[in-house]
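Structure ticket #2291
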Amino acid sequence: MVQGGALKEGDTILELVDVHMHFGKVAALSGVSLEVKKGEIHSIIGPNGAGKTVMMNCINGLYRPQKGDILYKGQRINELKPYQRAELGLSRTFQKIELFGGMTVLDNIRLGRHIQLRSGIVSGSIYVGKTRKEELECRKFLEEEIIDLLEIEDIRDKTVHMLPYGLQKRVELGRALALQPELLLLDEPLAGLNLEEVEDMARFILDINEEERWRVTCILVEHDMGVVMDISNRVFVLNFGNPIMDGPPAEVQKNPEVVKAYLGEEDLYSTRR
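Resolution: structure written out below.
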């Protein structure tokens, strides 16, 4: 692998090596290792309290594990802060929506773009040259790519706190995409959505992953087994901080340990369609 360089489809973009995370005497993660390939949707499943969100927080820098390594494109990033990881191309959504409710949809999405802007104070104060060019390019990207993809043109100027929950989920996804990430962490993007909204969100995730203009690698934490088994390339299973297995959806569904720990005897992974 070329450290920090351009990767090809199938190269390892993210690797967790023997990661341990403890909160006092509680072991949230115990020897977790994970390898995510560029171009895939790699899902993480497990019962409540399994450590899924803790894993996400370790990956994007909110938590620093006591032991183990996290490598992004071959570079060890354990010591990097969240904004530094974002500069490398990592972005995320949150289990609980973290939007600015008093701001408009477009302004919330614009906030995710600031890390890509390079204009200085002088050019920014007089709005000429590089600053004006960046602003026009930013507006074009947000309006022609993100807003179009997420089908939110009619609410772009609405105040976020006035929107239904399902649309707020789209706005949060739009803000994460504004960074133009190579790796997108999705923490329960379907939680609280109705059936139609779940189908729309699953379609957006597939488009982000598969369409040539995006081609974003995704790590998905989700409880909806129908969607997980439908759209994932690989599924990683956690049980109270301990990894059980990592493999293709068809193999995960048949693993007796996974069934016992999480899926249960019922056909919980049948699709909703």
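Closing remark: The first helix runs from residue 52 to 60.
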